């Protein structure tokens, strides 16, 4: 039995490590495609780029673990089934559970490793990556001028390029607004062509222009007409704009700025931040309730409802006023007094409505921040549990489809992972927007795919033909109207 277990383990580990690195590479390529706009033209060294990819790979590992487990388990058991090795093992009296037993242990270890990684290592790497990414985004670009769009990256100038030759980097049909004198649109330059370059010491941006015209308005300080601005037009064959810059060098930001963000905390720290943010949320809610311009007694009552439980605090009850009849008093007033009371009440209601809308927006934003921390705490568990779920989905599915290699397993794995991702994102969005409870939204994908894994495991143990087309053809034929009628008649004959 030990030899059999070692054989199954060796058959699993090879596809697992292979698919793990393939999946990680694909996810890294997706990352580069996503952030390529933030990296191009920054003049970054290979050291900075390598460091960024290194930290980004750590952030992708929680997604690589479940997908590689799924793909490796399908490939392993599919290959064993395709080569009739599973049939031979079952013929020898070995159940599918006993064959899967050593791999279940490996899946549990990988799940525990994924949880430890997400809780202890990933917060530090996320902090490093976020700090580095913000530093890169704020890095002064080696200006990349886009066609048909005004660019304001050069201090004091707005530049629009009509066309750009990608091979020679020559710029055509340039329109430049000079704002260096803090006067808008008083100096405009039009040029047929030009090109942009950075000096070797990276201290200056040089824009060379050819065959253009300078348009400018020169104010005249005369007593007769202080607002007179004569128009000036100067042609040129060659002109150079030289601008000094100070922030081409890469400056790494302080990590302490982002240390308390939700992606940079472990479970213990997330729990503490949730308690702190919840206290601030309810304190702000009580403050807003007291600021609403309504009956003070009702305001205090509403504020007390949101306060923490205090056994020593006396309960404030709102009692009806039986000594004053407002209706009789109001009906006895003059119509103009009634109008003034109505207008005052209307203004009061409008002010309360505006304040409530403002308070609601602020409280909603604060609640979304709290939800991010709570979601991150749940995500550390769900991603590790997903490793186990995908194993119990992939292993029996591989035994059922009996196809090894990278063909059918890859297709099935991608479809299952896409389905899992859609379900997971649906649950997370519902939880983030408070449509569902946080536990229901974050564990929705687990609640959906866990029964699928149990059902597939049952079908694999009982050797059910889940993927057989003949089975579904027979079921479809039985459901046809003619065949269904004959089946009912046959049952009637047998019953009679």
Summarize this entry quickly.
The chain has 2 domains: 1-139 and 260-416, no CATH class; 150-244, no CATH class. The chain has helices at 2-39, 46-82, 85-91, 96-137, 267-291, 296-305, 326-331, 335-401, 408-432, 438-442, 444-461, 469-478, 481-495; strands at 150-151, 157-164, 171-178, 187-198, 204-217, 231-244.
Write up what this structure looks like.
The protein has 496 residues and is α+β, with helices and mostly antiparallel strands. The protein folds into two domains: 1-139 and 260-416, no CATH class; 150-244, no CATH class. Helix content is 61%, strand content 12%. It contains 13 helices and six strands. It has helices spanning 2-39, 46-82, 85-91, 96-137, 267-291, 296-305, 326-331, 335-401, 408-432, 438-442, 444-461, 469-478, 481-495, and strands spanning 150-151, 157-164, 171-178, 187-198, 204-217, 231-244. It has a six-stranded antiparallel β-sheet with strand order 1-2-3-4-5-6, with no helix packed on it. Helix 2 packs across helix 9 (408-432), helix 4 (96-137) crosses helix 8 and helix 5 runs antiparallel to helix 8. It is extended and about 100 Å long.
Mean pLDDT: 77
Radius of gyration using CA atoms only = 35 Å
Runs in which pLDDT lies below 50 for 5 or more consecutive residues are: none
How would you spell out the order of helices and strands? HHHHEEEEEEHHHHHHHHH
> Count of helices?
13
Strand content: 5-15%
**Main beta sheet, described?**
6 strands, antiparallel
Q: Could you say which overall geometry the principal axes of the C-alpha atoms support?
A: extended
Number of domains: 2
Helix content: 55-70%
Terminal Cα span:
55 Å
Strand arrangement across the biggest beta sheet: 1-2-3-4-5-6
List how many beta strands DSSP finds.
Answer: 6
Structural class: alpha+beta
